Amino acid sequence: MPGLSELEGVVVGIIRIKEPCTAYAVRRELTDSPSTHWSGSAGSVYPLLERLQRAGLITATEDKADGRGRRLLKVSPLGRRALRTWTLSAGKPEVAASVFDAVRARAFALKKLPPRDRERFAVEALDALSDFLATAKAHLEGREGIEYFAALGGVYEAQARVDWMTEFLAAIRAGQ
Amino acid sequence: MPGLSELEGVVVGIIRIKEPCTAYAVRRELTDSPSTHWSGSAGSVYPLLERLQRAGLITATEDKADGRGRRLLKVSPLGRRALRTWTLSAGKPEVAASVFDAVRARAFALKKLPPRDRERFAVEALDALSDFLATAKAHLEGREGIEYFAALGGVYEAQARVDWMTEFLAAIRAGQ
DNA sequence: TCCATCATGTAAACAGTTACATGATTGC
DNA sequence: GCAATCATGTAACTGTTTACATGATGGA
Q1: FRET partner for A136 with CA separation of 20 to 30 A, picked from A66, B47, B101, B139?
Q2: Does the reported pTM lie above 0.85?
Q3: CA dist., res. A164 & res. B152, Å (int)
Q4: Integer distance in angstroms from CA B60 to C1' D12?
Q5: pLDDT tens digits for B69-128?
Q6: A7 strand D contact, CB < 7 Å
Q7: In which element (H, E) is residue A59 found?
């Protein structure tokens, strides 16, 4: 058994926190996240849940009386163990190194663009990153305990990106 | 034409900076990156380069005299325009929101784990994140100008993650 | 009554990974 | 001579996305 993949871990984690909940609620959690990394599309979530169910990591109720055909999901004991292993793998170097930032990826290509493009890049990126920071902060609302501190990580990162782009812009204006 | 995808933009950007260069050099740039987000595997890079060449975004020299069959890549004028558009899209909200952090993804699941698992998580994650910060800092060596400032973003983010996990650990020890 | 949202899913296409496979060159 | 690295690529698999498709519920 090769352990949970990234999206699998995220999804089992969401179900564990919200159980019992519908697949739709899992999708909402993904689509409402400040990060767009996971789309939360039906095409990704439903087949994934089917796999998790076949593997015995989650269970689903069948309620014929429910008009919408709602199915309530829960994490099985096996799923809890898998989720714990996945969660505690945060100490592995390759997990800590698993990060991605689409703005930073673009910044490298500025080297071969003229100064006016560089400034435009930094001004527009700073604006977008500031908006993103506001979104991340708004996402703290109503959270407490572990959930609050976990979401706080997103705010720390968003703030760091704003600080970085501010310094970047200053350097560009100084003729870098 | 739907614009460059994420990996396409990254790869065309690498070629633009290093041209003329081999596909292998592009792979090395990806595998040597502190982030493990892109594997830089042959199976991802070679088919991608073939697509880019077919689309006329990059060109490759054929040198029969070269024993290793080396092919030198360059970005075409069309590719430069596509790269510029991709780079300047950093101001779009969905690009600024395109971030991912595997440690933070795991942190949410702590809610349903006992205190001793929470502390273990934070201690081990802090250790791994500190190592990652050191790696990010080492990646600044020998860089200057735009490249330095772009790489600096990785250091800012890595530092923010360390700061966050430090606070997280303190909160957990305080009985959160 | 109508619209937004809740709620389920499927199909085709594509992207990316792992694993496999081969051979040349360089430095010790 | 040998090992590490340079350098190319392919095949099978899996996961994810986009787009399509249907219907129920609740509130204005």
Answers
A1: B139
A2: yes
A3: 7
A4: 28
A5: 899 999 999 999 999 999 999 999 999 999 999 999 999 999 999 999 999 999 999 999
A6: yes
A7: strand A58-60
